[in-house]
Amino acid sequence: MTLAPEAVRSMFDRIAPVYDVMNRVMTVGLDRRWRRLAAESVVMPGDRVLDGACGTGDFALADRRAGASEVIGLDFSERMLARARSKAPDIEWIQGDLLALPFADGSFDAATVGFGVRNVADLDLALRELRRVLRPGGRVAILEITTPRGIVRPFFSLWFDRIVPVLGKVLPGGKAYAYLPASVKRFPGAEELASRLAEAGFGAVRFTLLGGSIVALHTGVAEVTG
Ligand SMILES: C[S@@+](CC[C@H](N)C(=O)[O-])C[C@H]1O[C@@H](n2cnc3c(N)ncnc32)[C@H](O)[C@@H]1O
């Protein structure tokens, strides 16, 4: 099941009021640590940073804590952005599409995307857009749920295939959570995402598995083009 961009946008508009609470519950509070690690792996003091698919703004805030002097958060859901604005009115929050970023080439020193690339209609286009708006040598961090390996796998299946869909039935805006397992299964594994980043023009691509391998943090450096 692949949702059209408009359906994804309205789904996130609906879950905006419960999004932060659900994140904390579903990750037993680890999501904040993952964003901090991701931000610290690519943001350097004084950087101008784009947080794409910023949602309610927690990754952009982690980028700022990691030393960014300017952070721009971009998302296509106005209600997610309204939450972000209420947390940090001084950050610039822009409504826009990851697939057509409203910035000139080479505008940023670093870019982060947390749990956002899984939902885009064209992953390769999103990665190319991130590459385009980074200066050569600029760094990207992609944090995303991945299908886990080893001992965690059966527990993940139980959680994702049985418990999350039930939460989806009882929570307001819960349809988004019913959609979550399918979107994770469809998404490329960590090795493949690393190859797609390389194809999009990133060098030194690496990934680390976090949370017992349920989340992958990919980083890469924008290569000089031409
Ligand atoms: C799961 S939330 C992640 C929010 C935040 N990055 C975080 O770390 O919690 C995914 C976000 O991606 C946004 N999104 C999905 N596709 C998008 C697109 N094509 N352009 C801009 N935002 C998009 C949704 O509106 C939603 O806010």
UniProtKB/TrEMBL annotation:
| Keyword vocabulary terms for this entry | Methyltransferase, S-adenosyl-L-methionine, Transferase
Q: Name one Pfam family in it.
A: Ubie_methyltran
Q: Which GO terms describe its biological process?
A: ketone biosynthetic process; methylation
Classification via CDD domains: AdoMet_MTases
**Which molecular-function annotations from GO does this UniProt entry contain?**
methyltransferase activity
Annotated signal sequence is none
What InterPro entries does the database record attribute to this sequence? SAM-dependent_MTases_sf, UbiE/COQ5_MeTrFase, UbiE/COQ5_MeTrFase_CS
* Listed PROSITE patterns: SAM_MT_UBIE, UBIE_2
Supply the HAMAP family for this chain. MenG_UbiE_methyltr
The protein, known as: Unannotated protein
Source species, please?
A: freshwater metagenome
